[in-house]
Design goal:
The structure holds 2 protein chains of 2 kinds. Chain A is of the alpha/beta class. Chain A contains 9 helices and 21 strands. Chain B is globular, with a radius of gyration of 18 Å. The chains are: A alpha/beta, B alpha/beta.
């Protein structure tokens, strides 16, 4: 009989040992190490991580493709920022005429010239999270790690044990911030890097604000990005969160986002995944007080061996709240995509409206798409719906287009573009919307690669035949 | 321009067309009439290039080329237009974008430069007027949420835009009220000239009051059993299809 073995902890795998060793080597030198709160957070996190290790496919939400098989045994961790170089030297944002306050992170470190925090005259504070912990502990510490209490997992723990920087945004009360902010995270390394950004966004009462977040790679190492973002929306706030992911095929990207919404706050998230090695977007929204609304939209376009996973969790913890999810995806070649949409309507959350739609197109027999809508309802006066489809392009429509002289390739493009564009059309920033539509067009015609972000422009942009400005008709 | 010779077509082993012969020349308008289920729509679908049909025997020559050598899109580029009985709804694809793509691909095939945006827009305006289609409709997705009449007008609008040499209009009159019928017929009459040919497939004689054919063919049980001048339509209307059934049903 082998009973004893069942009670033994599982063997620590190579990656876990690496993390454990690293923690013991560097925890004293990590930013904010002397802060008791931070040190306690990190200690608790490393213990949890070593015990639980990386998520494996026995865990329901990881059963389609767990990452414990995908990580390398060891990674490099860049312990100090790269010496300052102007961002334009290695990255140029190609969104035409976009007017944003841009904040750049290089290999996880905030890029700045001796000003880790920018303080605007109206009271907005933006910059490095670790600098903010030092300078504004009263603003940061009550929020840090406060949104994910119900949702602790080993990847959050991994981030908490070893994060060294991230974006901090504080918007004071009663401000309508017209100009969006842009967070650009760039990985530029030939080594296999482990990068863990920790972002914190706090939007004060009656304020509105938009953030554009871009995850890009410009070099080909096997990076593992494990980001955690916490967003706190106070009463009557309005926050638009646009996220773009365009990563190289060897990268692992985990974006976990936790949102807490107070009374009458409005949250809109719009996520576009163009290219991915392995991307997992986990978006967890808690509607804490009445009349809060969350609109969670996303589009993913994957091909070759790419894999994208969107995990949505909406917690209706108060009555009279609304949530709607609309995720669409196209998988080509052997690519894979998964969507999990979980909505819970708590007891007493009456007059909840919760809607969920996930639509997918599999272009080949090898492309694998899985989708799981999941509504859990404990109140009786609610309106909830869900729908999920996986299909091919409509053959009747293809035939109709071809019968008017349009070749198969362009007919396919027209249909895919029509399918995908709905998500981008909801973006309120004109320049960003137009750029995204252009990128979707290029992506669908197979012309968008991660080279698109590079300033070298090795390949010339090709004209696509059905380009037309419909606004003039 | 179009020569159909002894055409046999079946679907899932069931023979629908059983030796159909038809010749259409430039400048002519032909009408094909006949009761339900005799193969009228099958003929249109085969010319369009639908793959679910098996051509078991016979040939179709179009402009002295074997039609079956041409892909669906090349048939359109060579000047064939099918007005579908049930036009498909395509959410998200606007009519303008659709027509611009189609027109430029056809032009490219013929070695012509693509139209400029201004030329294209002007052309759209002209053709819209022809079928009394308003701007709101052309900015919408192809056929999405269109009424039956709007769908048919949209077909004729596309026909006007693409300016085909051979048009096959498959029951374009079905589901139309008198006003819509007049608009559609007016459109077709304006497109008609000595260089193109139009084949109208219909159940009823009333469309032929507006689009006057040179020849009327009666399709029955997979064959054209009777051809004649436009007066044949009145005879059919008066006597009904039973007359054809009684006359030809036994011998088949």
């Amino acid at each position: 009989m082998n009973m004893e073995n069942q009670y033994k902890l599982p063997m620590m795998n190579a990656f876990t040992s690496f993390i454990d060793d690293t923690y013991h080597k560097i925890s004293e030198t990590l930013p904010c190490a002397h802060h008791t709160e931070i040190a306690t957070l990190r200690k608790r996190a490393i213990d949890y991580f070593v015990r639980e290790q990386l998520p494996h496919n026995k865990i329901e939400s990881w059963r389609h493709r767990a990452i414990d098989q995908l990580v390398e045994d060891k990674y490099s961790i860049q312990l100090t920022p790269t010496p300052y170089r102007p961002v334009e030297d290695y990255f140029k944002c190609k969104i035409h005429n976009i007017d944003t306050y841009m904040f750049t992170f290089l290999n996880g470190w905030y890029v700045h010239k001796n000003t880790p925090l920018t303080i605007f005259p109206n009271g907005i504070i933006v910059g490095s999270l670790t600098a903010a912990i030092e300078q504004y502990p009263d603003l940061v510490l009550p929020h840090l790690a406060a949104s994910r209490t119900d949702n602790y997992d080993s990847l959050v723990a991994l981030n908490e044990a070893l994060f060294y920087d991230g974006l901090f945004v504080y918007i004071p009360e009663n401000l309508e911030v017209q100009k969006p902010m842009q967070l650009v995270s760039i990985i530029d390394s030939k080594e296999n890097l482990l990068v863990q950004q920790r972002n914190l966004i706090v939007v004060g009462k009656n304020s509105s604000f938009s953030l554009v977040q871009c995850d890009d790679s410009i070099a080909f190492g096997k990076t593992f990005l494990n980001n955690v973002t916490e967003i706190f929306l106070e009463e009557n706030t309005h926050f638009n969160y646009y996220k773009m992911e365009n990563k190289d095929p060897d990268s692992l990207l985990i974006n976990q986002v936790f949102v807490q919404q107070k009374k009458n706050s409005q949250f809109f998230s719009n996520t576009t995944t163009f290219n991915a090695g392995y991307v997992r977007n986990s978006l967890r929204v808690k509607l804490l007080e009445p009349f809060a609304s969350a609109k969670l939209w996303g589009i993913y376009l994957v091909d070759k061996q790419q894999y994208v996973d969107n995990q949505i969790f909406v917690d209706h913890a108060a009555p009279d709240c609304t949530s709607s999810q609309l995720y669409k995806g196209i998988a080509d070649d052997m690519a894979g995509a998964n969507f999990n949409g979980h909505v819970i309507v708590r007891e007493g959350a009456q007059r909840t409206n919760a809607f969920q739609t996930n639509r997918n197109i599999a272009l080949t027999d090898e492309a694998k798409i899985t989708t799981k809508p999941f509504l859990e309802i404990y109140a009786d006066d609610v309106k909830c719906s869900h729908g999920a489809t996986i299909g091919q392009l409509d053959e009747e429509a293809m035939f109709y287009l071809r019968s008017r002289g349009i070749c198969e390739r362009n007919a396919k493009m027209l249909l895919m573009y029509a399918f995908a564009i709905e998500i981008a059309n909801a973006i309120e920033i004109d320049s960003l919307r137009n750029r995204l539509k252009e990128m979707i067009k290029k992506r669908l015609s197979g012309e968008l690669t991660i080279c698109d972000q590079c300033v070298l422009h090795c390949a010339q942009d090709k004209q696509i035949t059905f380009e037309i400005d419909l606004s003039k008709i | 321009m179009l020569k159909i010779n002894n055409l046999h077509v079946s679907i899932k082993g069931k023979e629908i067309l059983k030796g159909l012969n038809l010749q259409v020349n430039r400048g002519e308008v032909h009408a094909i009439m006949g009761p339900n289920g005799t193969g009228k729509s099958t003929l249109a679908s085969v010319i369009a290039g639908k793959e679910i049909f098996d051509v078991t025997e016979g040939s179709i020559e179009y402009k002295n080329k074997n039609l079956f050598d041409l892909s669906v899109e090349d048939r359109a580029r060579e000047g064939i237009f099918i007005g579908f009985q049930y036009p498909v709804e395509i959410p998200g694809v606007s009519i303008s974008n659709f027509m611009k793509t189609a027109l430029n691909e056809i032009r490219q095939y013929r070695g012509l430069e693509p139209l400029s945006a201004t030329e294209f827009l002007k052309m759209m305006e002209d053709k819209k007027k022809m079928v009394e289609l308003n701007t709101k409709l052309t900015n919408r997705s192809v056929n999405e949420g269109f009424s039956g009449g709007e769908k048919k007008r949209n077909e004729i609008f596309q026909m006007a835009m693409l300016n085909p040499e051979l048009s096959i209009l498959d029951e374009t009159d079905s589901g139309l009220d008198i006003d819509a019928l007049r608009i559609v017929a007016n459109g077709v009459n304006q497109i008609k000239n000595e260089n193109n040919a139009i084949v109208v497939i219909t159940h009823y004689q009333r469309l032929l009051d507006y689009i006057v054919p040179d020849v009327i063919h009666v399709l029955f049980d997979g064959r054209i059993v009777k051809s004649g001048p436009k007066e044949l339509a009145y005879e059919l209307e008066e006597k009904g299809y039973d007359w054809i059934k009684n006359e030809y049903g036994k011998s088949i």
